[in-house]
């Protein structure tokens, strides 16, 4: 979709650089844990901070995007730099079981934790059996 929206004002060299940057997008390693009332999604995004993280839900598609911003210390400039920022991106199709209005997210030291609560209708519940 980005190719459809992207302006054609770029030179071929700029377009090649953008395509190379798109290819450098990393897939964060993700663990998904099922609990009785929720799913936990834990994504490793080292170097990503709260400010450079974007979590969105659109049409039951959960998108995780984060950038590693490398800044030079004040007063210094690089003559040569081989290290540069990276971009993480991952998308998941959510089941109808997930209560999308109750999703929560936290990020600590580059580890993103999302809690995806299950809808009440899809939670396991014990039914009491009474003796007659």
Automatic annotation (TrEMBL):
Sequence ranges assigned to domain SHSP in this UniProt record: 21-132
Pfam families named among the record's database cross-references: HSP20
Signal sequence, renumbered to the chain: none
Entries under InterPro entries matching the protein: A-crystallin/Hsp20_dom, HSP20-like_chaperone, Small_HSP
Composition skew (Polar residues), residue ranges: 1-13
Region: Disordered, residue numbers: 1-23
Top-level division of the source organism's lineage: Bacteria
Family as reported in the entry's similarity comment: Belongs to the small heat shock protein (HSP20) family.
Protein name as catalogued: Molecular chaperone
Organism: Vreelandella olivaria
């Amino acid at each position: 979709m980005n190719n459809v929206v992207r302006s054609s004002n770029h030179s071929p060299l700029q377009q090649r650089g953008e395509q190379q940057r798109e290819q450098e997008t990393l897939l964060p390693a993700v663990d998904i844990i099922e609990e009785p009332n929720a799913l936990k999604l834990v994504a490793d995004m080292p170097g990503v901070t709260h400010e450079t993280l974007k979590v969105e839900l659109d049409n039951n598609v959960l998108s995780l995007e984060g950038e590693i911003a490398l800044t030079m210390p004040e007063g210094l400039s690089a003559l040569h730099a081989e290290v540069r920022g990276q971009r993480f991106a991952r998308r998941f199709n959510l089941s109808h079981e997930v209560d999308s209005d109750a999703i929560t997210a936290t990020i600590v030291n580059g580890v993103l934790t999302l809690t995806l609560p299950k809808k009440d209708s899809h939670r396991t519940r014990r039914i009491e059996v009474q003796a007659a």
